[in-house]
Amino acid sequence: MKHTILLVDDEIDNVEALERIFRKKFAVLKATSAAEGLALLKKNEVSLIISDQRMPKKTGVEFLQESMSICPDAIRILLTGHTDIDSVIDAINSGQVYRYITKPWDSIDLANTVDKALERYELSHELREKNIQLQKAFDELKTLDDSKNSFMILINHELKTPLTVIMSFLELLAETNLDNEQIKYIDRIKSGSQKLKRIIDDVLSFVSAETGLLKISKKKVSTQKLIGDLTQRFAEQAAVKKQKFVTPKKDYEIKADPQVVSAAVERLIDNAIKFGDADSSIEIELAMLDGDRIELAVTNEGQPLSEKTIAKILKPFTLDEDVMKHSQGLGLGLSLTQALLKRHSSQLQIECPKGHVRASFEVDLA
Fold first, then answer.
1. Which residues are bridge partners to 219 per DSSP?
2. What is the pTM of this model?
């Protein structure tokens, strides 16, 4: 990029002397009055202006001040005598002048000053470009933010509404006289519909958590009631594998969003039952931590997981065939739990002591 500089001085000899310093490196415009200089600024893109202070009709400071409305980004340098210092200082303080140079100038010092001034111009220009790019990126993010809201509405309406209709009519159909084969078909359809509903609910929950749409509302929650309700809900499922729950005796009050914490613990218990050994214990523990926080952990007996496998199953929509099957979901379980906990300023930790899998997270005490 070859810069254009404007030289303004009512003395033509001074203008030509300045031109000789800069003409090899820059495109040079010359003016011998403020009016002529302003006219050139209106027709050209100028990076730097050098103006004499003592000129007829308008001083250099007045000219540079007026030039700001025409070429606001240009760097301004003033040539002045010692008697004009006060007015020059005022111009510098008001931001109209980058630097002043006293006459007679030193050519090397002036050339160095111009080089540094143009470096500043280029940095300012680059910063403006970056700001434009940032604004564009911000606008795109805002568009994306609007799109995610539209996506959520679309999923809710276009998928959940027809699914609700299907399930409602299935219930009505089940009340009619059906033979054994028809009953089997309805059970299969109902099972598939319920699975699809779980998938849609999981995807909506994951997107809500990851995009910040999920609103957190913390309340006082009893750990005993929370754990008791969940173990009761899973009692039948655990009994099929002859698994038993070991729960903490002590009750704590935590400050948490009941739905978020309940959903997180629910998924940990569900995984502990699915992947835990038959005829084993599932232990739910509570441990006090520093800083008025408590750790809630669910531990099951079973095949330990490698660090690679843990990292994989914490990624959304990832299925590890050594751990889970396609028939058991989208691979969203633990990644959804992680997303929910992040909205709660917490995170899921998975450890595998010998013969066990332990999943835990932290919450605040009330």
1. 256
2. 0.51
